[in-house]
Design brief:
The protein has one domain: 3-Layer(aba) Sandwich (Uracil-DNA Glycosylase, subunit E), CATH 3.40.470. The strands form two sheets. It has a six-stranded mixed beta sheet with strand order 1-3-2-6-8-7, with helices on both faces. Strands 4-5 form a two-stranded antiparallel ribbon. It is an alpha/beta fold and 198 residues long. The longest helix has 18 residues. Helix content is 43%, strand content 16%. It has eight helices and eight strands. Strand 7 and strand 8 form a beta hairpin. The structure holds uracil. Uracil binds next to helix 3.
Length: 198
């Protein structure tokens, strides 16, 4: 096992026991990142399916992301998938667990985990899927629709491209969804082409 793989495993083990915010006590388990490669894709937080399976992007949003990765010719295991927040946040509605957006303090509590993943994996480029990921990666509020598709720079100098979260596309229907997916694929495709010098 390489030094990097060992360090990543050690990080996952520490992450598993994380109780730095109350979300750690309500879900099934912590969901860390998976995959490897020069491109890191960051989502918001695990959902119901991810919480149960302990893997990122395995529910409906993950299926849309998988189909995008397939169309782009990027096998899932050749990118690193992770989230800004590592625990599922939800409220019960009857017997259903309904996703809730993590609060600022929960995003802040998880911030160091994402920073550690980045420091360890040293991705050439990072794609922020949605506003929570973008805010956590760039340490500021990001207007996704205005800033999507542009290369931005993190405090550590790494390039970040912001685009929509797949869940936002799942809320659309018909032609509108098809068109939005095409534009999303264009954004994602740019993720492998950070401008030189950034
Ligand atoms: N949404 C996310 O942001 N991340 C996941 O892992 C699943 C759904």
């Amino acid at each position: 096992m390489t030094k990097e793989a060992r360090a990543l495993r050690e990080l996952q083990e520490r992450l598993r026991g994380c109780r730095e915010c109350p979300l750690g006590d309500i879900g099934t388990q912590t969901v860390g990142g998976e995959g490897r490669g020069p491109l890191m894709l960051v989502g918001e937080a695990p959902g119901d399916h991810e919480d149960i399976q302990g893997r990122p992007f395995v529910g409906p949003a993950g299926r849309l992301l998988d189909s995008a990765l397939e169309r782009l010719g990027w096998p899932r295991e050749t990118v690193y998938l992770t989230n800004a927040v590592k625990h599922f946040k939800f409220e019960m509605r009857g017997k259903r667990r309904i996703h809730k957006t993590p609060a600022q303090r929960e995003i802040a509590a998880c911030h160091h985990w994402l920073d550690e993943e980045i420091a360890l994996l040293r991705p050439k480029a990072i794609v922020a899927l949605g506003a929570t990921a973008a805010a956590s990666l760039l340490d500021r509020k990001v207007a996704v629709m205005r800033e999507r598709g542009n290369w931005l720079v993190r405090g550590d100098g790494r390039p970040v491209l912001v685009t929509l979260h797949p869940s936002a596309l799942l809320r659309l229907r018909g032609v509108e969804r098809e068109e939005a997916i095409e534009r999303w694929l264009e954004d994602l495709r740019r993720g492998t082409e950070p401008p030189p010098g950034i």
